[in-house]
Amino acid sequence: MATDTPRQTLTTPVRATGSVVGPWRAMALRMEVLWSWYRRYWRANLYSSGLQPLLFLGAMGLGLGSQVKDGSFLGGITYLQYIAPSLLVSGIVATAVNEAGHPVLSGFKWKQDYVAVVATPITPQQLYGAQLLWIVLRLSISAVIYGLAAALFGAWTGPGVLLALPLAVFTGAACAAPVMAFAAVTRGEGHAFVALNRFVVLPMTLFAGTFFPVDRLPGPCLPLVWISPIWHGNELVRAVTLGGLSPLPALGHALFLVAMLVTGMLAGRRSFYRRLVI
Amino acid sequence: MSRTEAGFDDTAVVSARGLKKRFDSFEAVRGIDFEVARGEAFGLLGPNGAGKSSTMRMIACTSPRTGGTLRVLGMDPQTHGPAIRARIGTVPQTDNLDMELTVRQNLQTYGRYFGLSRAHVRDKAVELMEFARLSDRADDEVQPLSGGMKRRLAIARGLVNDPEVLLLDEPTTGLDPQARHLLWERLFRLKQSGVTLILTTHYMDEAEQLCDRLVVMDGGLIVAEGSPAGLIEQYSTREVLELRFHPGTQTRYVSAVEDLAERVEVLPDRLLLYTKNADATAARVSERDVRPLSSLVRRSTLEDVFLRLTGRTLVD
Ligand SMILES: Nc1ncnc2c1ncn2[C@@H]1O[C@H](COP(=O)(O)OP(=O)(O)OP(=O)(O)O)[C@@H](O)[C@H]1O
Ligand SMILES: [Mg+2]
């Protein structure tokens, strides 16, 4: 072997150190990278996802609430206690939609980190899954912060809040999944997300029993209510905090959100693949 | 690193047969055949839009082929994309570094996607920053780095998994001469250690320096293939006489010199006379009272091959 040295140096086989990891580990690795980014930029993020809903709660619950004396729908609780669960849901959904919109489009278009990632063993589907899990993690942090702070206001009536937090996060995930799919097919500069917030998320928040019960709305508005994931989330979260929902409707609300999550995930995986593998 | 493992694998690292890539109605790669052997440095040359990057992206398993067959490291990208990507390194034509992370973090985070341990990527990042001469910028964000530094970082990132094949799409575009020479030296070292290099370039000196073998692509097809010297021999004469004129006036002299050379190429400000002995040709040109602003005798280069094959200059 030692005779043919020059040729040998040229043909010494190289063995790459990279390997393919399983899908869960792949998603964990991607989330780890997102975490190292978040560690540098968490302050700016915290305001929009954690503090904003709290400001809302303070202004609406305490300020406006002082004017809503013994509203017939309150039935013995304060207005603050009435809207604390639903503001949790709408705050979480707003964060979910924001996180699933512009940052995702940026991953394809401006920051292009998605393009970089799919040149590694990570697949577009794993990238999608990791991004969704990451959003769920972020929503959970926001929910806990909100939950604790609202407790200081005395906004919770009992331990039901411990169920309300995951339910709100679940509602957020059900909204994030399809919005990520939408972001992956968006071509423009991201104006679509402004429209989405203005014409979809905002009406959904208003026609969802966030600030007052939906039976106060005129009849023709009800179909809008039924398709609002925020309403389904509100109903569930109010049920566990304030009670008063029988099992069958509760199941219906949950199924609506599950269907939205699953459909969104299928569409999202597909649209991530189609955008990245060209 | 286990680069010293015994055994020699001489099967082709990449082999393509009738490889095609179609985007909607446009076919960017129209059926090409080539093989790249292990340890070889293989170049793809061609004018803008020739299909070089499209080909590279198919090899990198980031873009599915639309026709033909392709094997990378013996596997089919269609079915084994992740397994292939785990063992290759990719440097895309446009950098997609994470501008908001530091140099070190870019290398470490990218390495994690290859299943490498934290300790491993920590050491690897240090080694690669040394390699790319970015050690003193280790903990700076990427955004404010110069274009050339970003390019070097992109190349270093492509090496994070000790790839067996490194794909470089125009690696030195935008680098200053010193950085280019540094990079050539580094790439040469990689090649010495057995890494297969596949690169595209618009610089013929780069192709001559680095590539054992290259193909010239034009319009989605391979129009020539060979070693740099072989291509020059096949497609050009030994020497070239360049006659420089005021731009626009050069065409007047074509008929006067045409029969003195095997071939005359007309450029905007020059005539190129392809001949075996350019000095002798120069003498005969002056006998005919053709008075160029200046004239130059030189050896043929890949640039001449390129001009002959594609009708275009290498850098446009
Ligand atoms: N995603 C895409 N969709 C549609 N057309 C594309 C796409 N990518 C490349 N093309 C087209 O395919 C052709 C070949 O492009 P490619 O990038 O492979 O060329 P290239 O040889 O790398 O050129 P350059 O030297 O300019 O980098 C071009 O005409 C380009 O417009
Ligand atoms: Mg290109």
TrEMBL record, chain A:
Keyword Transmembrane helix assigned: yes
Ranges for domain ABC transmembrane type-2: 44-275
Localization, UniProt: Cell membrane; Membrane
Organism annotation: Streptomyces glomeratus
Entry superkingdom: Bacteria
Family statement: Belongs to the ABC-2 integral membrane protein family.
Name of the protein described by the UniProt record: Transport permease protein
Keyword annotations from UniProtKB, A to Z: Antibiotic resistance, Cell membrane, Membrane, Transmembrane, Transmembrane helix, Transport
Residue intervals passing through the bilayer: 132-156, 162-185, 192-214, 250-268
Upper lineage: Bacteria, Bacillati, Actinomycetota, Actinomycetes, Kitasatosporales
UniProt xrefs under InterPro entries: ABC2_TM, ABC2_TM_bact-type, ABC_2_transport, Nod_factor_ABC_transporter
Any Pfam family hit: ABC2_membrane
The keyword Ribonucleoprotein belongs to this UniProt entry's keyword annotation: no
Main location: membrane
Membrane topology annotation: Multi-pass membrane protein
UniProtKB/TrEMBL annotation, chain B:
InterPro entries on file: AAA+_ATPase (IPR003593), ABC_transporter-like_ATP-bd (IPR003439), ABC_transporter-like_CS (IPR017871), ABC_transporter_ATP-binding (IPR050763), P-loop_NTPase (IPR027417)
Domain called ABC transporter: residue spans: 14-244
Superkingdom to which the source organism belongs: Bacteria
Bilayer topology term: Peripheral membrane protein
Compartments reported by the entry: Cell membrane
Location, primary (coarse class): membrane
Keywords for this protein: Antibiotic resistance, ATP-binding, Nucleotide-binding, Transport
GO molecular function, one term: ATP binding
PROSITE patterns membership: ABC_TRANSPORTER_1, ABC_TRANSPORTER_2
Cited PANTHER family: ABC TRANSPORTER ATP-BINDING PROTEIN (PTHR42711), ABC TRANSPORTER ATP-BINDING PROTEIN NATA (PTHR42711:SF5)
Family: Belongs to the ABC transporter superfamily.
Record-given protein name: ATP-binding cassette domain-containing protein
Species per Swiss-Prot/TrEMBL record: Streptomyces glomeratus
